[in-house]
Amino acid sequence: MDEKLRIDKYLWAIRLFKTRSQAADACDKGKVKLHGQNMKASKPVNIGDVYEVRSEARKWVIEVTGFLPKRVAYSEAIKFYKDITPPEALDKVHFEAASFHTGKRLSKVGRPTKRDRRDIDEFLDGGPEEA
Fold first, then answer.
1. Where in the sequence does UniProt note compositional bias of the Acidic residues kind (predicted)?
2. Which domains does the chain possess?
3. Which helix (H) or strand (E) covers residue 10, if one does?
4. I need a surface site. Which of 3, 46, 119, 130 has the fewest CB within 10 A?
C-alpha cells in the first residue's frame, strides 16, 4: 500500500486533537516529535513510527499501526495506533480546569450574586428592609 498521510491529519483522525488546525499548530510549535526531532505538519506518516505528542493536558507516546485518512469514532480510531506511553509519564500529568486559562472565574466563586447580595444586606441590617 503506497499511501501518504500527513502527520497533522493522522493525529486529528485518531482523535488526539479536536481539530486539524490544532494538530498542525502542535507540529509547528514542536510538540510532535519523531526520534527526538520536531515534525512539520506536512511530513508523511509511516507504519511503525513512534511519535511523542504533547498537549496541554497530556503527553502520549504512540506507535502507528495503520493509516486512518478520515476521522472516525474513538472505538474505531484506537485500532490504528498503539499507546506506549510509559506509566511514569502518566503520573506527572495533572489536569487543570479549562476555565483556569481563559481568565473567567469559576461558577459560584468570587463576587456574590444579586440574590446573595440581598441576603447579606438583610443579615447586616438585622431583618427585612421595609420601604
1. 122-131
2. 7-125 (3.10.290.10)
3. helix 7-13
4. 130
Q: What is the mean pLDDT of each run of 10 residues along the chain (131 residues)?
A: 82 92 93 92 93 86 92 92 82 54 64 87 76 51
Cβ proximity of 46 and 64 under 8 Å? yes
For residues 35 and 38, what is the distance between their CA atoms, to the nearest angstrom?
Answer: 9
Q: What is the DSSP string of 54-89?
A: E-SS-EEEEEE-S---S---HHHHGGGEEE---HHH
The span from the CA of 64 to the CA of 25, in Å, is 20
Joined grid coordinates for residue 70: 478520515
pTM for this entry = 0.66
Residue whose C-alpha cell is 499501526: 65
Per the listing, cell 502507528 goes with: 64
Q: Using DSSP, state whether 117 is helix, strand or coil.
A: helix
